[in-house]
Amino acid sequence: MVATITAQQLLDMKRKGDSIDLIDVRTPAEYSEVHVNFARSLPLDKLDPQAVHAERTSNGTTPPLYVICRSGSRSRQACEKLIAAGLTDVVSVEGGTQACEAAGVPVIRGKKTMSLDRQVRIVIGGMVVIGVAIAAFADPALKPIGLGLAGFMGAGLIFAGITDTCALAMLIAKLPWNQAGGSASAVTCTRSVLAAAALAVVASTAMAGHTKDTLDTVQERVQKGEAMLLDVREKGEWDQGHLASAKLLPLSLLEEGLSPEQLAKVLPDDKIIYCHCARGGRCLLAERILKPLGYDVRPLKSGFDDLKSFGFPATPPKAK
């Protein structure tokens, strides 16, 4: 159990002239913005409990070691680390620097910055929005990635709430703009991180996109013999109906791996290959396998039912 002290109690001790050894475990940037005037900076991500223990033991220091952060969470984590290292007389300041300001404890103000908590909220919120956007608007093949990203960030929040620890916060705390003398503001850099992530999503979506060729163009090229239709659904789906001029090459076989000779029996190397599936997702995966082999593969966003409704001749389901 970590011992605590209120901001008012801390102020009363200072007014009485008591000796107070107070360390601030926030990032250097947060410390520079505002800190209690008798606190010294010792960021949580750089805290060495053994070194602190050795220093206080060698100096014969006996007064309690008080620990403060922004609101009390990180100071409690620091106290737990110090206690585990053998220091028993450690005290966390309830409410942190915010409470000290409200109680009238003297503080020193510097350049305005963004708190670590805000940065964490922005990054998590941004990544959840990006994940949902991928799932909702990107190609179907990327939907699991979007849902996975949003779910992972949500699970991280639950874990942080249960354990009162946040690995993301510790990571962000190490970034350049959270160190003293950083050349860019936290606002600017956090926006840059999110912008880079968004651009990466857009780029990956563009790279994995469906063909821009219209269905009229596809139909015309197939009729002229300039292109072929490739169905990458499974055999059971094919038997339930397929485009009359299409050839079957299930995605499962492609993923298992086919030799160039086996592929050459199905795929021409001198024609455009328009591949399709049921809803437009599996054909994107097929493209990623065939494109590096030199085939001019163009995935269709329209699935089998859409192509049949458009006017591509189709065969009826196979009789059982």
How helix-rich are the residues, as a percent range?
40-55%
Q: Quick one: how many beta strands?
A: 13
Cα-based radius of gyration, to the nearest Å: 31 Å
Order of helices and strands: EHEHEEHEHEHEHHHHHEHEEHHEHEHE
CATH class of the largest domain: Alpha Beta
Biggest sheet: strands, sense, closure? 5 strands, parallel
CATH superfamily of the largest domain: Rhodanese-like domain
Unreliable sequence segments: 203-207
Q: What is the name of the CATH topology of the largest domain? A: Oxidized Rhodanese, domain 1
Content-based structural category = alpha/beta
- The shape, in one word, is rod-shaped
Averaging pLDDT over every residue, what do you get? 86
CATH architecture of the largest domain: 3-Layer(aba) Sandwich
How many domains in all?
A: 3
From the N-terminal CA to the C-terminal CA, the straight-line distance is 71 Å
State the strand order across the main sheet: 1-6-5-2-4
Percentage of residues in DSSP E strands: 5-15%
Question: Can you count the helices?
Answer: 15
Task: Describe the structure in your own words.
By secondary structure, the chain is α/β, with parallel strands linked by helices. The protein folds into 3 domains: 107 residues, Oxidized Rhodanese, domain 1 (3-Layer(aba) Sandwich), CATH 3.40.250; 92 residues, no CATH class; 101 residues, 3-Layer(aba) Sandwich (Oxidized Rhodanese, domain 1). It is 49% helix and 14% strand. The chain is built from 15 helices and 13 strands. A 5-stranded parallel beta sheet has the order 1-6-5-2-4. A 4-stranded parallel beta sheet has the order 10-8-11-12, with helices on both faces. Helix 4 links the parallel strand 5 and strand 6. The radius of gyration is 31 Å and the shape is rod-shaped. The N and C termini lie far apart (71 Å).
